[in-house]
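Lab meeting, action items carried over

1. Structure of the two-component assembly. Owner: GW. Status: complete.
Input record:
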Amino acid sequence: MPHDHSDHPHSLLPPDPALRVKALETLLTRKGLVDPAALDVIIDTYENKIGPRNGARVVAKAWRDPAFRQALLEDATPVVADLGYYGRQGEHVVVVENTAQTHNMVVCTLCSCYPWPLLGIPPAWYKSDAYRARAVREPRKVLQDFGVTLAENTAVRVWDSTAEVRYLVLPERPAGTEGLDEAELMALVTRDSMIGTGFPRTPDQAAP
Amino acid sequence: MTRPHDMGGRFGDGPVLPDQDAHVFEKDWHARALAVTLASGSLGQWNIDISRHARERLSPKDYARFSYYEKWMAGLADLLVERGVVTPDEMAGGTPTSSPLAARMLKAERVPAVLASGGPADRPSDVSALFSVGDWIVTRKIAANRLVEGGHTRLPRYAAGARGQILRYHGTHVLPDSAAHGLGDAAEPLYAVVFPATELWAHPEYPADEVVLDLWQSYLKAVE
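Predicted assembly:
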């Protein structure tokens, strides 16, 4: 048997979650196992340095450069690593392309696997029971919760991230974006469009 | 046979609530919980499969009532005690003693390199690939670990006994069913397998919809 037990050690900690975390951090610090300054660096990394702008840059490049797009769809891991996007929860990357026929959408039904180096830490909804439970069975109803409606006859392909492969959706390039540079295109790429629960902005919706 | 994390396809969870401009961490303690978990992992006392399984084997009651990062904290606390890193007395607030693992403590200056180097799951393997892209397979009828009763597996229940087609070969990867129980990496071929929605659900939304899962070779059998 795996280590099921009735005397769960976690029940020894204070019940309030914030106090529980504090108690663990303090205990591990006093035992010389955790450096609080290292925790600050980890948090700063995912709050300020690694986030969906990374993925947006990959998408904008793919929209502008057919050879880059081709290489990305064939074997994304070395292509995004060349841009500096490699590391924890992004060691094996596959990019899947939306077309008029197929809309891709990513979930992790068993936990919360997500391409951290490209999109950062997953949002709360991605980790929620409702998304994990429903995305594979009724993707269109889930998309309605995001205000997204697919064209008729578009098939949905849902990717359940059950291994250490991380998926990024390459959304369709919006109409009317010919001639935009990389930075202008990046401004159109939303986080949700790279998970498959949204579309990119159109130029008239572009964030300033 | 099943555990509460295996929720793909479940009914009754209500709407998904998208956030528009939410912070990366909704609460300060969420950020600390993530950071403490990552820092503790670098002590090298467990792998990612062991830590996933620690969250999955919370009691169904705890799994349901704990928020996301509470599950992380509970899984971490359980592992720290099970692995002898922390004593139950220390966990309950007793005076801590210094740890022989202190030399492995993740220092702030090493964090960027550790996060950037990651932990790839592909490994060389003697197991040769039995399937090619386009082959039809059927998954195990029972989505359960074959090495350890009640153990970790990555075949969700909703995809058990289903017919699908090999879509992509990922190379040979660590087998979670083995690695989660300290039984070695046991790397074997890993495939992306595509299933028609009609194969998985009694009432699929649209007949052409598909679900793709990454599945290890030992989860699969050939079909004609």
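2. GW to write a short summary for the group page. Key points so far: The mean pLDDT of chain B is 96. The first strand of chain B starts at residue 136 and ends at 139.
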